[in-house]
Amino acid sequence: MFKLIIGSRNYSSWSLRPWLAAKQAGLPFEEIAIPLRQSTTKAEILEYSPSGKLPCLIDGATIVWESLSICEYLAEKVCKLWPFERKARAEARSMAGEMYSGFAALRQGMPLDVRASLPFTEPSVEVKKDVARIVSMWEDCRQRHSQEGPFLFGHFTNVDAMYAPVVFRFLTYHVELPEASRQWVETMAALPAMQEWRQACVAEAA
Ligand SMILES: N[C@@H](CCC(=O)N[C@@H](CS)C(=O)NCC(=O)O)C(=O)O
After folding, report:
1. What phi and psi values does residue 93 have, to the nearest 5 degrees?
2. What is the C-alpha separation between 153 and 138, in angstroms, rounded?
3. Closest ligand 1 atom to the C-alpha of 68?
4. What are the pLDDT digits (tens) for 169-202?
5. For residue 112, what are the contacts with CB-CB under 8 A and spacing of at least 6?
6. CA pair distance 5, 55, nearest whole angstrom
7. Mutate to test the pocket of ligand 1, among 17, 42, 53 (most ligand atoms within 8 A of CB)
8. For a pocket test of ligand 1, which of 20, 37, 54, 103 has the largest count of ligand atoms closer than 8 A to its C-beta?
């Protein structure tokens, strides 16, 4: 069984992604949570993760850091974590990469705070642009893959995992969405694993 080391659930969007992918793939793992923003945080993380950042996966002698690399590693164990068809898989990887490397305004303007409810009255132009781009991709996915299942590419894949923190962000900041995106957000929020994560956020001290 591998170990997944994660940060405080309420704030660690990067941790949620591979954690959710592993849960949805049905892969058993041992979870170690390190509270962020403490004087001991960095030293504790460095006991596991060579980059000094979380998440980090340890599978015997194999150490994998960086959330997207961990999602890729999980997909090597369970191939259903990417779409089966090559074109869809390429698009899914592009969307995952865009989330991984982009949307800085959204990350800064709408920081993850799962247990909070903070209706957003005046998003900046940059945040609005990020929201619009994300929603346009979700709408396109749902339009093309709704016959195959309720997730972005039909069945649950790493793309759903990569955008899972955006689900929590949109709920925290009460972002209004078009119908297909709203349905996908509802599907994601209703997943037992997402509910487990949310409940753990509420129970978390910091
Ligand atoms: N690009 C990294 C980002 C990881 C990251 O920034 N993790 C934060 C928690 S969400 C962290 O470890 N912060 C602790 C620190 O910087 O001391 C990934 O995708 O895994």
Report:
1. -65, -35
2. 10
3. 19
4. 999 999 999 999 999 999 999 999 999 999 999 9
5. 10, 11, 12, 13, 16, 165, 168, 169, 172
6. 5
7. 53
8. 54
pTM above 0.90, yes or no: yes
Compute the C-alpha angle 73/148/79, nearest 5°. 20
Cβ count within 10 A of residue 29: 17
CA 71 to ligand 1 center in whole angstroms: 15
> Taking a C-beta distance cutoff of 8 angstroms, is the pair 19, 197 a contact?
yes
CA 44 to chain centre: 23
Q: Which tokens go with 150?
A: 């309720």
Structural domains present in the chain: 2-79 (3.40.30.10), 83-193 (1.20.1050.10)
> What CA–CA distance (Å, rounded) separates 37 from 9?
12
Name the pairing type of β-strands 2-7 and 29-34: parallel
